[in-house]
Design a protein that fits this description.
Structural class: mainly alpha
Number of domains: 2
Helix content: over 70%
Largest sheet: none
Oligomer: single chain
Order of helices and strands: HHHHHHHH
Distance between the termini: 21 Å
Length: 147
């Protein structure tokens, strides 16, 4: 809602995000205690693709054979009521990470790049990249727990 300001578009994007999560579940690597950063990364990718194309993407939903869900006024009202600043807070926290951690978290979680690929780009070991991602996600988690 914070990005689209439209409950219907938000619902379409949410549906596409969850379809994309289901479609990509086999590629998920549980390297952290929660899959939230991975899901947020998928959501950012879906939102970005939708913006670039000027419409909500629906490839993942079509691939899985999901039919569109018709929302009524109460659904839209509920969407607006539960939309809060939580997602924006996570993005803000990731953006506030030290540069090396922020880059590693965004490359691994948001862009879904491999540790090897990131390490080659940064000219460091995969272990260094893993540590940066781990530290960055740990900072975000602690800040969320303390807020």
């Amino acid at each position: 809602m914070q990005e689209t300001h439209d409950p219907e578009v938000t619902a379409d994007i949410a549906a596409e995000v969850f379809a994309a999560v289901i479609a990509a579940a086999g590629r998920y690597r549980p390297e952290t205690e929660t899959a939230a950063p991975w899901v947020i990364g998928i959501a950012r990718n879906v939102l970005g693709a939708s913006r670039r194309r000027g419409r909500v993407e629906d490839r993942a939903r079509q691939r899985l054979g999901f039919q569109p869900i018709e929302l009524d006024d109460s659904d839209l009202d509920e969407t607006e009521a539960i939309a809060g600043p939580g997602g924006a807070r996570v993005v803000e926290l990731v953006e506030s990470l030290p540069g090396d951690e922020r880059h590693a978290v965004q490359a691994r979680i948001v862009d879904e790049r491999s540790y090897g690929e990131i390490a080659a780009e940064l000219r460091c070991s995969e272990l260094v990249v893993r540590k940066r991602v781990s530290r960055g996600l740990g900072r975000v988690r602690r800040r969320l727990e303390n807020s």
